[in-house]
Write a structure and sequence with these properties.
2 copies of one chain form a homodimer. Chain A has a 7-stranded antiparallel β-sheet, with helices on both faces. In chain A, 38% of the residues lie in helices and 20% in strands. Chain A contains 18 helices and 18 strands. In chain A, helix 15 runs antiparallel to helix 16. The radius of gyration of chain A is 22 Å and the shape is globular. Chain A is an alpha+beta fold and 471 residues long. Chains A and B meet through strand 9, helix 9, helix 10, helix 12 and helix 17 of A and strand 9, helix 9, helix 10, helix 12 and helix 17 of B.
Chain lengths: 471, 471
């Protein structure tokens, strides 16, 4: 928090005293302007410069969120929804100050539908909280979207999060059935629903999934659940070079061997996780796999995957079927981002994330690795390659602006490569503050449509202003 | 066409002569105002009263569609996109006259991505055309969304179509990766893309999927493809009563036996298809199943399904593994709507469609069947019950308005039942002209949001006016 405090100190904007008075009347001590709380809501898990909101509020229900937003609208005060602050494109940075709505007290699991495999939760429920609840209640169900961090389900919805299991279960896009959102005028809208399909009017639920708080505050989400698989098997396999590893992925995906996770870590990243997590993996481009299903179908698929990795020079296909061994393996993968940062003590990670059609994944990664050779920065590469999605983390010294500039330049080049190959400027990190220009490059005329929708639903531009689309 | 001609005759609106002159300059003989062509574009496959458009145009590319829409905007002329006219909520009826854009000449398959399992097609390509192409090219791939009719893929996208295979493969919502749409100002927008996931800004692609032409004309679609399964097995199973059949569905869905299709036909409908297709099925509530997968996984699942249907009194679990036998079986299911109409010669079908969480399916269907007992109309019930989606067809005499009124009243009651049970007023037929009030009942405040979006993107209200949301 020290870094954040350094760059974003200051008192709350005194011009905002009237709205704060009203918020305090509404919320009592769940309306906070003390610097410690504001600091804790100033920045996310990324390099983006923190900025303190003027106040942080902790509503407990839809009605309170509605009243907060109405007050903010009346006083033209920016509203920034906050889940756990674990995203990486600056989406929750209060660039224009205003009121941060921390949804952590809206943390009730409202219902679980055993026969329907669905659940409705308040936005502040984290994915681990939901999964603990489902396990303790012996439902045999779980929520499979897994971005690594124990993010809130509202935040995951707002950022269209995905993560390592998306190749098997889809992203938040595929797993949100409905949601409740508080619009810029304080109206409470229920979008989507519990039916598995509907052709009733515009698909508002999917408009709000991924809007990053710029169209409204998501307060409740109805999610699809999955059955805990009968059998799970994991495996790790090292390759002589990155091209072999990625070509194995392309072949595995196109031959249709169902996988729940298929992750690539390059040799730089493998060195980092060995050091960070005490593993002894070969320092080489490596694929991590996970297979879910019945005992027989998992065995069938593991058996089918082996020869494919062999053909591409994969060595040492290490299986991990025990829960403990698997947990350790995946923890290493989740720690990749943190592990990478220990390669350069004191550094912060400038992370970028693109996604391309799987057929172009080798081209895009090889071009990126080639480009990285010209950088002076350490920059591990890893990703959810089954979806064509990968990340590069540039380890930069936060006190050297030239390093940030260099990372930005490389980030822009990687986005260019992805767009040339029919891909997208971000697979799962979102636009936030960091990719406004990239969104323009990717969607051009589409950004005009996004702006028109933003203006129609938030005419005062109070909802997380400055993010996703500039208006 | 005689019925249509009867109810919707007349010359083109003479006030529209200037726009027609310009359209003729642009398109030559691909701009038509003769009555035969206009009649062929006046109505869909439903009871909704046809209305002739003033002109029908046949563009060949995005640029032409853009120019047509720009001309229509300049002359405040309604634009009605037309695929194959096989939908059932009056979505293509030119209620305010104007220009019908028939997309059938935009019928090129633009690309097939073998490794990426995707294809980009023009809007006029029909699903059977795409599947023939994929089969003839030996790709081993196919497009699985199957609404029965050989609809155009643009029309299926615009109506968020689904059909019998949605329980296995999802609806158009899950199978459209990207699209090109011509907006009300003629701008050409590419939404979504080819990457399997993206968090780049608002999910415009999913806003246009299901907009029924009211936000723009969809001209190209990028679709996910599926692998032709190694093995397919189908089965038919009769039940002593509808409640047993539906409870079998609920148990099958909640125990997670993967199925590609699971269809219910009630005893009224079974009688109709026996008569129509020459089958000798028992005249009882019946489930039709289909399983896709590897030989072993299909066998495993068929074996698991049998005991569940047995437990619910299912009898005579008839397997059909041969392609020909399966085709005949599914043809009977597809013919359900047409078969039902032969039960009362000269009748037209007033069809309604709701979808509820699967756990409430028995409640909703039983309540509906109970209600139907009080109707004098013949009204078979069938549906895609794995998704919780079912249809009722009221066979009405088109010359007796009291029958239409009765069907409407029952239709409204069924929607009420579905909404009470957490369902939606339409699972797959859309809003069109027929369910504007039901959409209001279901989404209330959400309809205000839809209207705001409609006004923002189509300020002159020229895009398929009068459908989905009134502005």
């Amino acid at each position: 928090m020290t870094d954040k405090a350094r760059t974003a100190k200051g008192s709350s904007d005194p011009n905002r005293a009237p709205v704060f008075g009203e918020l305090r009347s509404l919320l009592g001590d769940r309306m906070r302007t003390d610097e410690g709380i504001r600091e804790a809501h100033a920045g996310d898990a990324s390099y983006h410069k923190p900025r303190l909101p003027d106040a942080v509020v902790f509503p407990a229900c839809n009605d309170e969120v509605s009243k907060i937003v109405k007050l903010c609208a009346r006083y033209r005060t920016p509203v920034v929804p906050f889940g756990t602050g674990t995203a990486v494109e600056g989406g929750i940075v209060a660039v224009q100050g205003g009121v941060c709505i921390d949804l952590s007290r809206m943390n009730r699991i409202l219902r679980v539908g055993m026969a329907d495999l669905d659940a409705t939760v308040e936005a502040g429920v984290t994915r681990k909280q939901l999964n603990r609840h489902l396990a303790e209640a012996g439902t045999g169900l779980y929520f499979p979207v897994d971005p690594g961090a124990d993010a809130s389900l509202g935040g995951m919805t707002a950022t269209r999060a995905s993560g390592s299991a998306a190749v098997g279960y889809g992203t938040m896009r595929e797993n949100v059935l409905g949601l409740t959102v508080i619009l810029a005028d304080g109206s409470i809208v229920h979008a989507g629903g519990r039916a598995r399909k509907s052709s009733a009017g515009y698909d508002l639920a999917h408009l709000f999934v991924g809007c990053e708080g710029t169209l409204g505050v998501i307060t409740e989400v109805t999610l699809k659940l999955a059955r805990v698989p009968e059998a799970v098997s994991a495996a790790v396999c090292a390759f002589p070079d990155i091209s072999s590893a990625v070509n194995a992925v392309i072949e595995l995906m196109s031959t249709g061997i169902e996988m729940t996770r298929i992750e690539l870590l390059d040799e730089v990243q493998m060195g980092a996780i060995n050091a960070y997590s005490g593993f002894d993996y070969k320092v080489a481009p490596t694929l991590f796999f996970e297979f879910h299903g019945s005992e027989s179908s998992v065995a069938e698929r593991v058996a089918a995957a082996g020869p494919v990795t062999d053909r591409h020079g994969g060595e040492d296909f290490r299986k991990a079927t025990g829960q403990k061994e698997r947990d350790r393996l995946w923890q290493a993968r989740y720690d990749a981002y943190y592990a990478s940062q220990t390669m350069r003590p004191g550094s912060v990670g400038f992370v970028t994330d693109v996604c391309v059609p799987v057929s172009r994944l080798a081209d895009c990664i090889l071009k990126t690795k080639e480009e990285l050779k010209t950088s002076t920065l350490i920059a591990p590469l890893f990703g959810h390659v089954g979806d064509g999605n990968f990340h590069v983390v540039f380890l930069i010294d936060p006190n050297r602006p030239e390093e940030l500039a260099e990372a930005r330049k490389f980030g822009e080049r990687i986005v260019e490569f992805a767009l040339e190959m029919g891909g997208t400027c971000t697979g799962e990190h979102g636009i936030g503050l960091g990719k406004l220009a990239a969104l323009e490059q990717e969607h051009g005329e589409g950004v005009r449509v996004m702006q028109a929708i933003k203006k129609a639903l938030d005419p005062l531009n109070i909802m997380n202003p400055g993010k996703v689309v500039k208006v």
